[in-house]
Amino acid sequence: MPVTFSARHVLEDHISGFEATPNPHHLAILRAVSVFSVLARSGHEADIDETLTNLEDVHVRFCGPGEWLVVSETVAADTIARQLSDLGSPRAAFVDQSDGCVVLRIHGPKVRAILAKCTALDLHPDLFEIGQSSNCQICHVGANLARTGQDAFEIIVMRSFAGFLFDEMREMGREFALTAGFA
């Protein structure tokens, strides 16, 4: 007898019953996001960085020297894999992390105050500019934090820690009536 599986987001149970009309401070869970980890081989960091920034419809998140996350809501994982394979294995290695990562988007006028409760990064607009990203600890969980707009950030976290991080972020945002839901 055939078995039918339905795909459920790892945060489906965390959000049930709490979805609300977004307030000015909102935590959005992105559903179908392609996420790739890219590592440049020694000596090829600069040309890999340039090649990644020239890819269309993707966002490149800096993780460390010679290491990036390539993220897209519109380009399918197999398309990104084909583009990254053109880099050549002597220059770079990549891994599809799409099923192993969760992407959260948080925005609002006091978003820095919310994030300041759970990360040690200095998020002042002059220091952490739009487009900048960093690996860091958020609520004691390793994550990648990127500033995507004036008062907007994206958090990429491993799937197994997403529930804990989501619950903690909601708690940190309670003071500002942070709402949450699927994007």
UniProtKB/TrEMBL annotation:
<dbReference type="Pfam" id="PF01571">
    <property type="entry name" value="GCV_T"/>
</dbReference>
<dbReference type="InterPro" id="IPR027266">
    <property type="entry name" value="TrmE/GcvT-like"/>
</dbReference>
<protein>
    <submittedName>
        <fullName>Sarcosine oxidase subunit gamma</fullName>
        <ecNumber>1.5.3.1</ecNumber>
    </submittedName>
</protein>
<keyword id="KW-0560">Oxidoreductase</keyword>
<dbReference type="InterPro" id="IPR006222">
    <property type="entry name" value="GCVT_N"/>
</dbReference>
<feature type="domain" description="GCVT N-terminal">
    <location>
        <begin position="56"/>
        <end position="179"/>
    </location>
</feature>
<dbReference type="GO" id="GO:0008115">
    <property type="term" value="F:sarcosine oxidase activity"/>
</dbReference>
